[in-house]
Amino acid sequence: MPACIQTKKVSKIFGGLTAVNSVDVVVPENAIASIIGPNGAGKTTLFNCISGYYVPEHGEILFYDMPIQGQPTYEVATMGIARTYQNIRLFGEMTAIENIMVGQYPRFKAGWVDAILSTPRERSEEKQAVEEGRRLLKFVGLEGLGDSLARNLPYGAQRRLEIARALANKPRLLLLDEPTAGMNPQETEKMTHFIRSLRDELGITILLIEHDMRVVMGISDQITVLDYGTKIAEGKPKDIQSNQRVIEAYLGPDVTSLTQKYQLRKKQRYAKS
Amino acid sequence: MDKPTSTSDQGKLRFGRYVRMFIGIVIGVFLVWRLYDVLVVEHKFGADTWVRFGLSGLILGGMYALIAIGYTLVYGIMFMINFAHGEVMMLGAFGGFFVFEALRFIPAPTLADPKLNFLDAHPIFSVFLAFAVGISISATAGYFLEKIAYRPLRKAPRLILLITAIGASIFLQNLAMLLFGPQRKNVVNPDLLDRGAGWTITVSGNPVLISYTGVFSLVLSAVLMIGLYILVQRTKLGRAMRSVAQDKNTASLMGVDVDDVISKTFIISGSLAGAAGVMWGIHMGLVNHYTGFLPGIKAFTAAVMGGIGNIPGAMLGGMVLGIIEATGPAALGIDFQLKDVIAFSILVLVLILRPSGILGEKLSEEKL
Amino acid sequence: MRSSAVDNGLRTGVTFGIVIVTMFLIGFTVTGAGLIGKLFGASDSATPSLMFYSLFMILIGMWAGASASPRPLTEADTFKRALISGLVAGLVSGAIAAVIGFIFGDLSANKIDPRTYLPSVSPDSIKLFLFNQTPLMGSLTLLALMTVSAAVSAALSFFFRSNHWLKNKSGETSNAARGFFQSAGLNRVLQSQYASYVFWAITAVVLIILPRVWGSYWNYVFGTVGIYIILGLGLNIITGWAGQLVIGYVAFFAIGAYTFALLTAPEPHHLTVNFWVALALGVLVAGISGLLIGLPILNLRGDYLAIVTLGFAEIIRILLKSDLMTDYTAGPRGIRDIGGPTILGKPFVSDVDFMYVIIVAVLAVTFIAHRLRNSRTGKAWFAINLDETVARATGINAFGSKLLALSLSAAVAGLAGALFASRNQFTGPDDHALMVSINVICLVIVGGIGNIPGVFLGAFALKGLPEILRETESYRLLIFGVLLVIMMRLRPEGFLPARRPELEKHAAQTPSGKEA
User: Fold this and answer.
1) Would you say residue C206 lies in a domain?
2) Is B8 in Cβ contact with A52 (below 8 Å)?
3) Which of A11, A20, A53 to probe by mutation at the B interface, max B CB count within 10 Å?
4) Which residues of B touch C26 (CB under 8 A)?
5) Which of B186, B360, C239, C275 could crosslink B307 through cysteines, CB 3.0-4.6 Å?
6) If contacts are CB pairs under 8 Å, which of residues 178-217 in chain B contact chain C?
7) Is C475 touching B (CB cutoff 8 A)?
8) Are B341 and C482 inside 8 Å of each other by CB?
9) Residue C299 and residue B179: Cβ atoms within 8 Å?
10) Cα(C482)–Cα(C475) distance, rounded to whole angstroms?
């Protein structure tokens, strides 16, 4: 299976701080991959590098073997990488369906002259755009809410609308930044199913950042663990769960020794009594 | 909103960068050509003229620097361009003017001169009073400007704040015009600070007048700037201001009263503008409702030149701009009518070529 | 914590006291009384009558009372509270006004004319301010008038609000006016196709007939309004939709006007290019200059952009005015005898004919703006306006889009400039002062930023109304300034806020064949 996205020794440095340090990630096509790590581990920075928002100081980012690092954001998006944001960033003053139509922007061609003259191209594209917008609304379960302003939608609906906007460009790779943040267990469950259906039904490769371990372990084909900008582990969910370095990264280096001490003391106490 | 400086679209706009490089080279060649022409080929002015220009540039620069600090302080804390700042300065200039006028009508006869008025009898006190009144008026104006116009918009988009500031600027300018009339008013100084008087030095055989008003303005600007620097660097208020400039939320969590600090920032920047306004009246001698507009924009240019949000930068920028403006037309051999074009061109060029300013490295990412 | 009634009244009173004194000092009391007189059909006289002045002051007092009265109402608010607030507000504002009035009255009685320093305070206006009485009696009258009117108004507004409040509690609709406009029946009538046909038919008839019947003065006034509508629609593209404030918009207006003028005027270049060709060239040159100016600056952040364009506008104005350019642009005295429109060689001479040209131009620009607004390009602009970072991440070339918006805006301004120069048959540097930009920004914002009908409303309100209310001319900019500050605080979306189209509903109502 070809690699959909691949980062080769990518580093991003802010001032003196190395936010991402020589990270290699390979996500095969049609996979669901997760990036996890404690707060400040450089996950979102890596996302920003992939989506073109930051230019990494070192390394290469390959999208289907094509280098994309340093390309302007809009070109990266046009190539087929779409993303969502940790704190939802919709166009609040636009309606839901307009948000999706903005997402479709790179797929259409009609320019301002077409718009003024109302050329056949403009009209057919507009019709197609609205139709597809409605289909996407239905797909994410927001049918009938298309004409309400995005900022007036409930939280869960905003999350789904943001994904719909990302899908509008028919991306080959979807970057989801904490898609289940702020959701209750039922909503999280639904969102997990939804993400899986994106891969299964639309064939989109998905790379996500997530803190909810149940989600991560449940849907990921592959997990990458970052800590202080460095990759400390990679593999299938099972391998990650038992990885010593990951546990240390999350709970601190003393944890293992602490548990050992605790168990030792317990034994001693039993022995006394 | 976090809009870091090193985003790809800013860094990678190759076309825009080429355009900027092209503009830079064209301007550079033009400058070298003009300077060579004027200084080497034509050799139009003697050293005395240059000294005269340089001096007036320094004096002007001091005033620009004082106003520029106001822009920078407010920008550093609220990330807004206080477009009405020039008008605050104008109100201060009117304050000084009216104090002089009032004191001129109070008779203070002495035996030697029965016609003597208060202004000339007690010039030091009069000047002191003029500054006190001018500074108070401007500080009050700054305080209420923030409280009435800007505070309700603390969380509004920047564009809305800027439009409000423009509205406030139009309002203050026209209020002053309607109140005091559109004519320019002559500021009559006490005899001690007569604009024609001063020390005369000789440069390359020609006399150069160093006026008392000029020296007075320059010294006072320097004192005020040093005072401000100490205030910001050494006092508790200064620490609070710097912390609010860094991060409002964290500062308020640490117990800093953000609203209070912002109010005081406006008072401080208003005071400096008021001092500059009174100086403007004393040194330039003319005051009207339009007095604040051009110095305001030029001081903003100075603040941007020095790196907006950066206090030493604003001081440096003000001085540099003053000198460039005073010597520029002569050095480039162009008409003196066009001296404002030089200032505006610098504004445009600095923003195009180096928006972070001369001392702009210290800028945090959020500010750009 | 609710402030006490006295505190509340005190604060309102001080505010209104300062407002009244300021009005007096800038001579607005006379103008205001004159306006009231005009409202009641009194003929224009040099000094308005005492009655209208009293009415003016009573209105201000009532306004003070109404704003002092507690709002929104809670259980704790009683009639007594409201009355005390109003009373204190009236008393304080009246007292401030009375003290100032007394001082000026006394000065005037001692033959001291304050006009040396306060040119707007004439002896007549002092006399009127004090109701043509002695300083003492006059200021006491002022005090009494303010106190009574504020107290009465506070009481009245308390009754009014408490009625509403009770209604709200019992679940009735509170805002009768809003209810009326939103009632289904009216909406249906307004939205039916016939209504729009009737509307357009009436508009067309009016636009054809009016310029012929109302005389050259109104043609001049509404010609100016039309040109400002064009400017407003143009600025709306870059500022209203793409969200980039351009303070120096007048630069493009000047470029259009000068291009047109230089091509058609006998001086200074002896060119007599055809009106339409020159118009097209004016638009083109302005558009290209927008492109060139935009290239280096459009990736600057919003407020820097605003200031850079301001710098450009000032540079262009100073250059036009300077001796340096006199040979090319006729310098400070401006360009005379600019050509007018012709059709098939037959010149348009009358102001009526020119009015038609302006009307056609306004309609054309409106049409273009309407088409652009909800197009793919228009959505991209609005997305950039709302969140540029995200817009880029959805594949929009933000820089290119903004450049396009600025060029189109500039081209429209060029059109307005060419028409303006041609209509006046003259253009000079002073036609292109920064105030033009400020006017345009104001009208776009006041009307409703991003909204086409809003631009019309704004242009009529800010350019048409001052022509009708000539007395207010000198106060126009002052009022603009206040209006901008107040609008940004209370209603940043303007009087006619933009609304988004209902695409989903519309698509659902006209199902296409393909849909399942």
Assistant:
1) no
2) yes
3) A53
4) 175, 178-179
5) B360
6) 178-181
7) yes
8) no
9) no
10) 11
Mutate to test the interface with A, among B2, B3, B8 (most CBs of A within 10 A): B8
Within 55-114 of B, beta carbons closer than 8 Å to C belong to: 80-81, 98, 101
Structure tokens at A77: 């998006």
Q: Is C438 buried (19+), middle (13-18) or exposed (0-12) by CB count in 10 A? A: buried
pLDDT in tens, C359-416: 989 999 999 998 888 888 999 999 998 888 899 889 898 888 999 999 999 999 999 9
Distance from CA of A103 to the nearest CA of C (A): 5
Residues in chain B: 368
**Which residues of C sit within 8 Å Cβ distance of A?**
368, 371-372, 375-380, 382-383, 386-387, 389-398, 404, 408, 500-508, 512, 514-515
Judge if C253 and C340 occupy the same domain: yes
Tens of pLDDT, residues C275-324: 888 899 999 999 999 998 888 777 777 677 888 888 888 888 888 888 77
| Partner C, chain A 69-98, Cβ-Cβ below 8 Å | 72-74, 77-78, 82-83, 85, 89, 91-98
With b meaning 16 or more CB within 10 Å and e meaning fewer, what string describes C56-95? bbbebbbbbbbbbbbeebeeebeeebbbbbbbbbbbbbbb
- Which of C166, C199, C233 is where one domain is finished? C166
When divided into structural domains, chain C yields a total of 2
| Per-residue pLDDT tens digits for C215-229 | 778 888 888 899 999
Residue in chain A closest to C373 (alpha carbons) equals A115
For residue C422, being part of any structural domain is answered with yes
Work out the burial of residue B195: count CB atoms within 10 Å of its CB; fewer than 13 is exposed, 13-18 middle, 19 or more buried.
middle
pLDDT in tens, A164-208: 999 998 899 999 988 888 888 888 888 898 889 888 888 899 999
**Do C328 and C401 lie in a common domain?**
yes
B178–C315 CB contact, under 8 Å: no
Q: Give the residue with greater pLDDT, B295 vs C513.
A: B295
Residue A205, H or E segment: strand A205-209
pLDDT tens-digit readout, A50-75: 988 888 888 889 888 888 888 888 88
Per DSSP, the three-state class of C130 is coil
Same domain assignment for residues C151 and C224: no
**Domain shared by C298 and C379, yes or no:** yes
For chain C, what is the mean pLDDT? 82
- Find, in chain B, the residue whose alpha carbon is nearest to that of C122: B179
Question: What whole-number distance in Å separates Cα of residue A158 and Cα of residue A169?
Answer: 18
Nearest CA-CA distance, residue B130 and chain C, Å: 17
Token readout for C292 is 């060139």
Cβ-based burial of A120 (10 A; exposed 0-12, middle 13-18, buried ≥19): exposed
Question: Residue A55 and residue B13: Cβ atoms within 8 Å?
Answer: no
Residues of B in contact with A53 (CB under 8 A): 7-8
A98: tokens are 């307009």
Map out the domains of chain B with their CATH numbers: 44-353 (1.10.3470)
Same domain as C129, residue C264: no
What pLDDT shows up at residue B15? 63
- What's the gap in Å between the CA of B201 and the closest CA on chain C? 35
Query: What's the CATH number where C477 sits?
Result: 1.10.3470
Domain presence at residue C469 = yes
* C183 occurs within a structural domain: no
DSSP C473: G
B251: amino acid identity, one letter: A
Q: Supply the range of the domain harboring residue C315.
A: 217-490
Tell me, yes or no, whether C231 and C347 share the same domain.
Answer: yes
> Do C390 and A89 lie within an 8 Å CB cutoff?
yes
**Is the domain of C152 the same as that of C37?**
yes
ipTM for the complex shown: 0.86
Residues 6+ apart with CB under 8 A from C283: C256, C411, C412, C414, C415, C418
Q: Please tell me whether residues C155 and C279 are part of one structural domain.
A: no
